[in-house]
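REQUEST FORM: STRUCTURE PREDICTION
Request ID: SP-0412
Submitted by: Lab K.M.
Chain count: 1
Length (residues): 452
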Amino acid sequence: MQTVLAKIVADKAIWVEARKQQQPLASFQNEVVPTQRNFYDALAGTRTAFILECKKASPSKGLIREDFDPAAIASIYKHYASAISVLCDEKYFQGSFDFLPIVSKVAPQPILCKDFTIDPYQIYLARYYQADACLLMLSVLDDEQYRQLSAVAHSLNMGVLTEVSNEEELERAIALKAKVVGINNRDLRDMSIDLNRTRQLAARLGPDVTVISESGIHTYAEVRELSHFANGFLIGSALMEQADLEAAVKRVLLGENKVCGLTRPQDAQVAWKSGAIYGGLIFVPTSPRAVNDAQAKAVIAAAPLQYVGVFRNAPLDEVVARAQALGLAAVQLHGDEDQAYIDALRDALADNVRIWKALSVGETLPARTLRHVDKYLFDNGQGGSGQRFDWSLLQGQDLRNVMLAGGLGADNCVEAAKSGCAGLDFNSGVESQPGIKDASKLASVFQTLRAY
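STATUS: Completed
RESULT:
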């Protein structure tokens, strides 16, 4: 142990002694009762588990979330998490044991006390503050300490997340019969990230061990790929650094997906609840899914999606006026808009409105060389055709700024998601008729995207 980790652990020993003086074990031990929330059961099963983390700051990033409100965070996490992790270290993570009961009250999932645990006192304290599991790091503890702390946790029905970050610690975890092993992709000695650590170490653990990949997970593509190696993921910073937390969770668990051609408020609600981030409103008069301003306002009022207005060769002032009046998150250009048009549009739009450009894919992938375009949409033809292009063209491309459209439904969305695009754009494949979305088809698409 050296550098950052050694310093944190040395300071933790000082903190523990001070806290024992301030809040002696004898003053609360009688009130400590075993938990009823089973951490091990929560992570079991075939579906990939997610431990979502409440974290205000970290040594590597400094302050991550300024408006840190544990209750508000838990109220979002509870819809998606298998368990919720709460940072309790004060000095380096601006955490607190006081956050544990706040989160536990809001969310029914098991709550993990994320601390540098070196003393049985910390486990009793965590349980007193309503934690249901604790983190034990083999980079910090020897085998004897681990056995002692693990026994205390299990005596209170608490689960243990046993963290390893290298081969030697992994061998110890196996010998210690750890039930849930967290493979930390971050080297706590120098703070570097390497997702290969999960790939390399997970294979060594038996089928009776639940493997959790920790640190450095940011995208749905990473989750899908690493889910072949790990049973679950612990994700914190990637979510905490985003202002829109619910969209951030959806982005990692499902991808950055859009339901386009919304014409009815109830369809926007189903799209949002199913897992979409974006809602598409079509302002192309010839489209069977075209909406007027009144219809658009009714859809927008129904669900907190990020709304994208779809235009084709529209007058610039019309696009700008609609974006402003409706508070659009983005405008999507579906016609022959050139660089001069896009430059003028960028100047006229508010800074927070993004510009997306749809490109038709034929025999080859079109170039993505336009300035001021935040995202591209690859489609077959003019859009709304329900036909897909040849997806094999996408192989080996960096598609992080590309949405994929054209004939997407429950039968092919997983194949589409594996292309590495930022997200998928659903339209005709989730309809009962043009402009009328089918609630069961929508739910099915997102359930399929989450079935890993």
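NOTES: The chain has two domains: 3-250, 255-449.
Reviewed by: T.R.
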